[in-house]
Prior knowledge:
- The protein is mainly alpha-helical.
- The protein has six helices and no strands.
- The protein has one domain.
- α1 runs antiparallel to α3 and α3 crosses α5.
- The two termini are about 15 Å apart.
- About 25% of the residues are buried.
Amino acid sequence: MNKSLDSIRIQELYTAVERVVSRLYGSTLDDFLANLDLQDIALMQCVVLGEAAAHVSEATRQRYPQIAWRKAAATRNFIVHEYAKVDFVQVWDTVMDDLPGLLAELPAVLAQILADEKAQTSV
């Protein structure tokens, strides 16, 4: 397991979540469906967060099972490979329903992983 890589990937995941949540904050579903730029932001950041989640070690995934690692990676794969079938209402629901909780949870996960890394390097 490469915890250094995990901390980097979790930081990437957090940044992607923060970007999409902050950019869509204050928008309505109608705004989102009418705005291609907002849709592009959501899709790109979902791809980034899914890619980051896919590269987190299995040990870290098991340690933090409350995070939907596989769902994030599967969403990324669907967007990349089946982009013509993307349901933007579902993307909206994911961003609005799932990502704010992840945004709140990831800093503690990252802090613990960084603390573990620090402890490992001082041994």
